[in-house]
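REQUEST FORM: STRUCTURE PREDICTION
Request ID: SP-0412
Submitted by: Lab K.M.
Chain count: 1
Length (residues): 263
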Amino acid sequence: MKHTTHIAASIKRIVIFTMSVAVIFAVYRFLLPGELRTKSILTSIILLWAFSAYVVLPRLHRLLSKWYVPDYFIGRTRTADGLLGDPVNMAVIGSKASLKKHMKHAGWVEAEPLSLQSTWKMAWNTVRGNDYPDAPVSDLFLFDRKQDLAFQMQVAGNPRKRHHVRFWKTAQDWYLPGGHKADWVAAATYDNAVGLSLFTLQFTHRIDPNIDEERDFLVDTLERASGITHSEYIAHFFPPFATRNGGGDRIMTDGSMVIVTLK
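STATUS: Completed
RESULT:
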C-alpha cells in the first residue's frame, strides 16, 4: 500500500512538472511580448519567469479559483490570487487592545504592513541575513478581507525563519461551527526557509508542514506570559487532512481547534 502511494505521488509530481513546463512554453510562445524576448538565453529565461510568476499565473489563478473555491467559511484562508491558504487553527476571545498587549508580553512583534518599501526591505534583509523583527507577512484573506493583525517571532535574528500568526476580527453575530463564539480567528504557521512557490513561481517563505505544533507553540507563549484565563482544546473540530497551501507547501493537521480567552 505504501509502495503504491509512493508511486502515485511520484506520478503526480511528474505530471505537475510537465504541466508547468508546458505552461511556461505557452507563455513564452504566445503571451510574452516581443520586446521582452532577447538573444540572451539567460535573460530570456529570467524575463519569462518574471512575466509568468507575477503577471500570467496570478491572473490565471484568480480566474479559476472564482469557480471552484467556496466563498463561505471552510476553515481555510485564501491567497491574494484566490488559492486556498493556511488553515484556521485557533480562535481568541478578547478585545483588540487585550490581544495586542498579551501578544507583546509573550514576545511577539506586530508585523509591518505589506508595502513595496517593506517588501524590498524584507528581501534585502533576508538575502543578507540581517535582523528584521517586524518584517511584513504576505496577505491572506478571510471574510473577503486580509488579516486585521499579524505578529511574528524571529528566530536567531534571521528573517528567513520565524514564527508568525495572522488574526481576523469576526462579526458580532458570527459563530464558529458548533456554535462556538469567538472575537478573533487565527492561522499560525512557522516559516522555515525562503524559496519559490510551487503554484505561482514567486519568491516566498516556505512553511513547516506541522501547523498544529506551531499553534500549540503560540498558545504556550501566551500561557507562559499569563495572558490566558481559559483555554479549550476541541479535538476533531475539522476533519484531519494533509494537503498544500497557496504557496505549494505541504501542510498537515489533525483538525483540532483551540479557543483561548484572554485576560
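NOTES: DSSP finds five helices and 16 strands in the chain.
Reviewed by: T.R.
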